[in-house]
Amino acid sequence: MFRTSTASVLASSARMLRQPLSNSTSTAAAPFMVRYKNAAAAAATTRLFSISSSTMSPPPPPQYSSSASTTADAERHPRVLVTGSLGQLGSGLVKELRAMYGNENVVASDIRKAPDEFMASGPFVYADVMNYSMLERIVVDWRIDWVVHYSALLSAVAEKNPALALSVNMAGFQNVLELAKVHRLRLYSPSTIGAFGPSTPKINTQDLTIMRPNTIYGITKLHNELLGEYYREKFGVDFRSARYPGILSADTPPGGGTTDYAVDIFHHAIRHGHYNCFLSKDTRLPMMYLTDCIKGTVDHLTHPTPLPQSVYNIAAVSFTPEELTKEIQKHLPHFTISYPDSAGIDFRQAIADSWPSSLDDSMARRDFGWKEEYGLEKMVKTMLNKIQAQVEAEKKSANNDSTTAAMAA
Ligand SMILES: NC(=O)c1ccc[n+]([C@@H]2O[C@H](COP(=O)([O-])OP(=O)(O)OC[C@H]3O[C@@H](n4cnc5c(N)ncnc54)[C@H](O)[C@@H]3O)[C@@H](O)[C@H]2O)c1
Predict the structure, then answer these.
(1) In the chain, N or C terminus with fewer CB closer than 10 Å?
(2) CB of 4 closer than 6 A to ligand 1?
């Protein structure tokens, strides 16, 4: 049941993500050097990873000569595996965990090739969450203690490919949950506001309420919540989950969710001065800035004692596209926005309409001290500043390129 791995699903997964599949026959078996940048890595300077020619054999963990290897087990930092670490949320979380526990103690993974700077900051391995043996090999080889499970297909992508969403979101989760049971791992796997449904009370939605999701994303996530709770009760698995709202980030692009408009709008505002929104102007949804999401996740993940419940709502701010536009216009008065007319309603409107507009997260505040730092005003200012800086850097780099080309001609 848990060992799902079929060529067709994998091929479909790779196509969906517009990435080539890792191919066992094309992967070179040569070792290569990885240089670490931060302080924790300074002691270890450079390390060797050998890339295996078999997809069943991830690179072996490095042999440490630093203090980490001589520290008693009881005192050592937890070793954390992050799945889906190249997505919108994963890279920021990996960075934060590496700063806390040392680069070598946080193993990032995904089914896509990592950018150079990501490879340079610590261990990265290929891990397809639909392959139980592959995951188990990583857990054993790297002596993993905790898994943060971020691999998933988000709401809009899942709705376009329900079969793949069932495989990645459910079978993938079942694999990591079973691993958590067998190897006594702590498992953090986020849920979503998408796990609620149209019959859920919309305002200040509580942790425990009516849950009848009508999207494939929501169904898979609710399945995961319930299964995680079952494993916690039945087998004592330390399963932790928070229902994230829509997450805004400037550095990493969103992965195909219904709340993506709240990121896209900033790029369009700065680059084009206009945005065609795919949601109606009064669609109110809960949202959060990435920094808050990472902090809340780390606080939840690292909470030392068992928590009274497995799954928590966490929330920061709720707004509509119209309210967000007004806040952006305080900084960019000429920015304009248009909304779909009745003939052009986007399929994501129905998804958004089935979700709550605000959450009650008092249990998370009580149990692990959840508290957001970013309200609408601070979030908008930060997003605009960061994206403006990116645009200026792009212009500078384009100018340098054209100067170099002109000099070469
Ligand atoms: N971003 C949000 O706004 C948001 C909101 C609510 C919940 N969440 C949840 O947070 C988690 C992370 O979300 P995200 O925004 O970073 O998603 P994302 O789509 O940006 O990234 C998901 C990652 O999973 C990887 N992946 C896909 N199939 C895989 C497979 N078979 N094996 C291994 N990896 C695979 C992808 O390559 C991708 O890098 C997900 O569980 C998501 O449901 C996100």
Answers:
(1) C
(2) no
From the CB of 258, is ligand 1 less than 6 Å away?
Answer: no
Flag whether pLDDT at 274 surpasses 90: yes
CB within 8 A of 73, min separation 6: which ones? Answer: none
Task: Judge whether 313 and 361 are in contact, CB under 8 Å.
Answer: yes
Enumerate residues 6+ apart whose C-beta is below 8 A from 260: 156, 246, 254
Least confident of 193-197, 238-242, 400-404: 400-404
Taking only the tens place, the pLDDT of each residue in 385-406 is 999 999 999 988 888 877 777 7
Residue 203 has pLDDT above 80, yes or no: yes
Q: Which is the closest atom of ligand 1 to the Cα of 193? A: 6
The CA 46 to ligand 1 mean position distance, Å, reads: 30
| E strand segments, 199-299 | 238-244, 246-248, 274-276, 285-289
pLDDT digits (tens, 9 = 90+) for 135-155: 999 999 999 999 999 999 999
Nearest CA to ligand 1 atom 19: 255
Percent of the chain with pLDDT strictly greater than 90: 76
Q: How many Å apart are CA 38 and CA 60, to the nearest integer?
A: 22
Lowest-confidence pick of 63-72, 289-298, 381-390: 63-72
How far apart are alpha carbons 71 and 66 in whole angstroms?
9
What CATH number matches the domain at 7-66+75-249+289-316+356-373, 3.40.50.300, 3.40.50.720, 3.30.70.20, 3.30.565.10?
3.40.50.720
| Distance from the alpha carbon of residue 223 to the mean position of ligand 1, in angstroms | 16
Q: Is the CB of 118 under 6 A from ligand 1?
A: no
Verify whether ligand 1 is closer than 6 Å to residue 286 (CB atom): no
Residue nearest to atom 23 of ligand 1 (CA): 84
Rg of the chain (C-alpha set): 22
- Closest residue (by CA) to atom 29 of ligand 1? 151
User: What are the residue ranges spanned by the domains of the chain?
Assistant: 7-66+75-249+289-316+356-373
Residues with catalytic function: 217
